[in-house]
Amino acid sequence: MGDADAAAIRAARGDWISEHLEIYLTSGGTRGHIMDVSAVGGRALTTHCLIKCVGRKSAKVYVRPLIYGNVGGEIVVVASKGGADTHPGWYLNVLESNTIGVQIATQAFEATWREPEGEERHQVWAYMAHLYPPYLTYQQSTTRQIPLVMLTPVRPIAVFSAEGSQ
């Protein structure tokens, strides 16, 4: 697949992602948490969170909707970028931050993050691929190891809004 195919996927889904983000933000999280992604190989009842981070170069605030899972009380997101050969910008921004914001439905938190390694990573990857099977195809299409980010909520924060975010 590589970067060109991943870009085509993002372009085709770009409007959907923007609409999804707007629904999630304008509803305060009462809508957008569970979405049907069966049209793209996922499941009908797929959970989504929002992550908020600051751009490492731009210093702008970015909010992104992402599929998530829950493993042992930690929120897990996947930096797949549709199987592109480069990491998504949000992941690179997370690497430069000690904490990020995460919103699940109507609750938002500041969270610390880590990346699982070894056997734990293998188990978490299998779980996330079960939640969203296209992750397997994405991994097969690139030589990079698609990162997993595990988030631990540390304190409640205000739910996200569209104002001031990109």
Automatic annotation (TrEMBL):
InterPro entries: F420H2_quin_Rdtase (IPR004378), Split_barrel_FMN-bd (IPR012349). One of its GO terms (cellular component) is plasma membrane. GO terms for molecular function: coenzyme F420 binding; oxidoreductase activity. Keywords: Oxidoreductase. The keyword Oxidoreductase applies. It catalyses: oxidized coenzyme F420-(gamma-L-Glu)(n) + a quinol + H(+) = reduced coenzyme F420-(gamma-L-Glu)(n) + a quinone. Belongs to the F420H(2)-dependent quinone reductase family. NCBIfam families: hi_GC_TIGR00026 (TIGR00026). This is Nitroreductase. It comes from Mycobacterium saskatchewanense.
